[in-house]
Amino acid sequence: MTFYCKNLEINTDQCRKLHGDCIMGRPGCVLEGRVALSEELEKKIEKLEAERLQRIARRQSKS
């Protein structure tokens, strides 16, 4: 599948908007809700969300 996104840094396959890997359809992505996600992408998004929540919990426990 091909798509165009103005936030995609083609050389590094990174999202300029979300400052990380380009995973189309993830929360915050300009394509969120506009594309159907495969099970693999959904799992990758869930993993990223879990990691984000862990980082937040670690920051709060240090305070």
Task: List the topology elements.
Layout: E1 8-9, E2 14-15, E3 20-21, H1 39-62
Antiparallel strand pairs: 1-2, 2-3
Return residue spans where pLDDT drops below 50 for at least 5 consecutive residues.
none
Radius of gyration: 13 Å
What oligomeric assembly is this protein in?
single chain
Trace the largest sheet across and list its strands. 1-2-3
Number of helices: 1
Rounded to the nearest angstrom, the distance between the terminal CA atoms is 45 Å
Number of strands: 3
Pattern of helices and strands = EEEH
Strand content: 5-15%
Derived from helix and strand composition plus strand pairing, the structural class reads alpha+beta
Helix content: 25-40%
| Total domains | 1
Overall spatial form:
globular
Mean pLDDT: 86
User: Main β-sheet: number of strands, strand sense, barrel status?
Assistant: 3 strands, antiparallel
Structure, explained:
It is a single chain. The protein has 63 residues and is an alpha+beta fold. The chain has one domain (8-62). Helix content is 38%, strand content 10%. The chain has 1 helix and 3 strands, in the order βββα. The protein has a 3-stranded antiparallel beta sheet, with no helix packed on it. A hairpin with a 4-residue loop joins strand 2 (14-15) and strand 3. It is globular. The termini are far apart. The model has no long low-confidence stretch (mean pLDDT 86).
Quick summary of this structure?
By secondary structure, the protein is an alpha+beta fold. The chain is built from 1 helix and 3 strands. It has one domain.
